[in-house]
């Protein structure tokens, strides 16, 4: 089971309607789909979640041809520098690119042995992975009206309950004025009854603004607030103002333990360097009683990997995030995935348990070539907003 070739294809996954978050609005996400083909003709799938990493992936691939797909540690040593920091290389870019390749290696091995990845990781703790149902102010899309008022958002939440038995709701804060967002919280709480409600401010508030905002929305029984402020230190300072659980996309377990905040770290498989490294990190989180869950935004390839790891990792028991319901396209057969009754079942097929749709891959790649990358480096082009903290 040796590597014959590695392919990397940048794609754009569009939303049915652009959604607003604290930095503006976004209509599409750029991902890199990776295919690792073995000498036996087995093709493993992987994904880089943070845009067009095709050049990075192909640069690393030159050093990997002919290696056994099971020698993941050896493969990592070949392409990711061992030092913690260096002025001569982009360690983050290489770690993210390797994480996408490593995902494909696991998928190829699973397909070769006719076993799901959760089996290769030691077995599964759950057959069903809970996921949150997202809501936000959304702009009109090509065939979707979006949601422009608190009442329209509340009606969307009601529809998700009626049509999909949604259980846990998570919405965007820090996108419009606070009075309107308080009204949104009131309408949503009335619409969802006693179902769990979480919010996400994407770290845009200053500490004084966060204190004021959390005091205003506290009556609506919010269980989690993700990144009401940017730093761990600011989150620790919020403890005396709220009993909401706090989560962050920043990864610093040692500091989280020292400060007692955030309660949970939310990330993807690329950021930590792949499935094996993420499993090790999750075990460390469990040891120190810091939560872990996955964030939203991957294609069906990355999302399937989340499901496999969530099944195998005992500590990933809390609901992770997903935007699959909002996607207008995907690169896997049968995609986008549609959560039911608050989550998705873990695929039992070999490897990731999903099959690449080659026509869809080319369609999404052509979209990338026509539109360029989303989010763009220039925030004015695709975000439509500034990065100033409020």
UniProtKB/TrEMBL annotation:
GO biological process per UniProt: amino acid catabolic process
Keyword vocabulary terms for this entry: Lyase
This protein's name: glucarate dehydratase
The protein's annotated pathway: Carbohydrate acid metabolism; D-glucarate degradation; 2,5-dioxopentanoate from D-glucarate: step 1/2
SUPFAM superfamilies reported for this sequence: Enolase C-terminal domain-like, Enolase N-terminal domain-like
rRNA processing keyword on record: no
Xref: Gene3D superfamilies: Enolase-like C-terminal domain (3.20.20.120), Enolase-like, N-terminal domain (3.30.390.10)
Class of enzymatic activity (EC top level): lyase
GO molecular function: glucarate dehydratase activity; magnesium ion binding
EC nos: 4.2.1.40
Keyword Lyase part of the UniProt annotation: yes
Organism: Roseovarius aestuarii
Superkingdom to which the source organism belongs: Bacteria
Domain Mandelate racemase/muconate lactonizing enzyme C-terminal: residue ranges: 150-245
Catalytic reaction(s) noted: D-glucarate = 5-dehydro-4-deoxy-D-glucarate + H2O
């Amino acid at each position: 089971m040796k590597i014959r070739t590695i392919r990397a294809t940048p794609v754009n996954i569009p939303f049915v309607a652009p959604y607003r978050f604290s930095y503006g609005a976004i209509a599409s996400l750029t991902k890199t789909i990776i295919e690792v083909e073995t000498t036996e003709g087995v093709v493993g799938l992987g994904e880089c979640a943070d845009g067009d990493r095709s050049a990075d992936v192909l640069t690393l691939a030159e050093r990997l041809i002919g290696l056994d797909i099971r020698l993941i540690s050896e493969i990592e040593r070949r392409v990711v520098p061992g030092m913690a920091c260096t002025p001569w290389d982009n360690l983050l870019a290489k770690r993210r690119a390797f994480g996408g390749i490593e995902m494909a290696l696991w998928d190829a091995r699973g397909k070769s042995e006719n076993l799901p990845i959760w089996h290769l990781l030691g077995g599964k703790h759950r057959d069903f992975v809970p996921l949150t149902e997202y809501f936000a102010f959304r702009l009109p899309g090509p065939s979707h009206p979006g949601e422009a008022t608190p009442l329209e958002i509340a009606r969307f939440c009601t529809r998700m309950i009626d049509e999909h038995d949604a259980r846990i709701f998570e919405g965007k804060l820090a996108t419009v004025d606070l009075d309107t967002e308080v009204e949104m919280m009131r309408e949503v709480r009335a619409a969802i009854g006693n179902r769990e409600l979480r919010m996400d401010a994407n770290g845009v508030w200053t500490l004084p603004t966060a204190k004021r905002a959390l005091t205003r929305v506290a009556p609506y029984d919010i269980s989690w607030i993700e990144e009401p402020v940017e730093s761990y230190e600011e989150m620790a300072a919020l403890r005396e103002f709220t009993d909401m659980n706090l989560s962050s996309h920043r990864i610093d377990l040692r500091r989280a333990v020292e400060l007692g905040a955030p309660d949970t770290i939310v990330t993807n498989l690329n950021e930590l360097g792949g499935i094996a490294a993420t499993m090790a990190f999750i075990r460390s989180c469990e040891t120190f009683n810091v939560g872990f869950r996955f964030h939203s935004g991957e294609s069906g390839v990355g999302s399937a990997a989340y499901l496999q790891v969530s099944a195998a990792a005992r500590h990933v028991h809390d609901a992770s995030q997903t935007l699959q319901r909002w996607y207008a396209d995907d690169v896997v057969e049968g995609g986008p995935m549609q959560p039911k009754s608050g989550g998705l079942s873990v695929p039992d097929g070999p490897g990731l348990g999903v099959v690449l749709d080659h026509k869809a891959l080319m369609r999404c790649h052509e979209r990338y070539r026509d539109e360029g990358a989303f989010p763009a480096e220039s925030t004015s082009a695709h975000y439509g907003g500034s990065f100033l903290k409020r």
